[in-house]
Amino acid sequence: MAQIQIPAADGSGSFDCLVVEPKAPQDGAAPAARGVVVLLQEIFGVNSAMHALSEWVADMGFIALTPDLFWRQQRNVVLEPDQGQDQWEQAFKFMNGMDQEKAVADIAATIAHGRAIAGANGKVGTMGFCLGGRLAFKAATGTDADCNVSYYGVGLDGLVAEKPAFRGPLLMHIAEKDKFVPAEAQAKILEGVKANPKVRAHVYPGVDHAFARMGGHSWDGRAATIANGRTAEFLVKYVG
């Protein structure tokens, strides 16, 4: 696990990015070139959950890059949702203060870096959760990522209403009982993407927002296992 700096495309500075690489082959052979997955944070910054997800992605054989997307407000925000209401209040403050178009530009810069990073095969996907799930949706329309995965993205009904043109394939995981994405919003999302061959959307019955955050209050082992299996197959198909 290491941390690097990536220059922002607008020349305003650079931001930190966590890097986790797959383990070297046990037989001592030179490792094959790897696909890269850019992980997009929840509203809590690059916290323990994002570190764990980075390790999981690396265990699948990909290079994991997790950029600090709150850096324009405050660098290296780390909040933990199980440590009280104050953490949630700070998290919503950072989410509401984010310039999402600049965040997408930072994601694009991370994708570009990932294509050229040592040991990479040139293919890069994005995968995001909550706020990051929304940004993964936006990455599918606003970047050249080879694929994108959105876990319980928020506010997607508004994005679908804009009738976006998808540049790369998108896999969506939607929680049926998501307290932040009510049934009416889910219906609009599903209706808006159902005829698009680049989008696959799955709804997971009976589970709430953040069902795939291991150890969280909404964790659901069955739904998370199914969603994560679909994600793994999707990444292998498009990133290698």
TrEMBL record:
One of its GO terms (molecular function) is hydrolase activity. The keyword Hydrolase applies. InterPro entries: AB_hydrolase_fold (IPR029058), Dienelactn_hydro (IPR002925), Dienelactone_hydrolase-like (IPR051049). The keyword Ion transport does not apply. Gene3D superfamilies: alpha/beta hydrolase (3.40.50.1820). Keywords: Hydrolase. Pfam families: DLH. Residues 34-238 form the Dienelactone hydrolase domain. SUPFAM superfamilies: alpha/beta-Hydrolases. PANTHER family: ALPHA_BETA-HYDROLASES SUPERFAMILY PROTEIN (PTHR46623:SF6), CARBOXYMETHYLENEBUTENOLIDASE-RELATED (PTHR46623). This is Dienelactone hydrolase family protein.
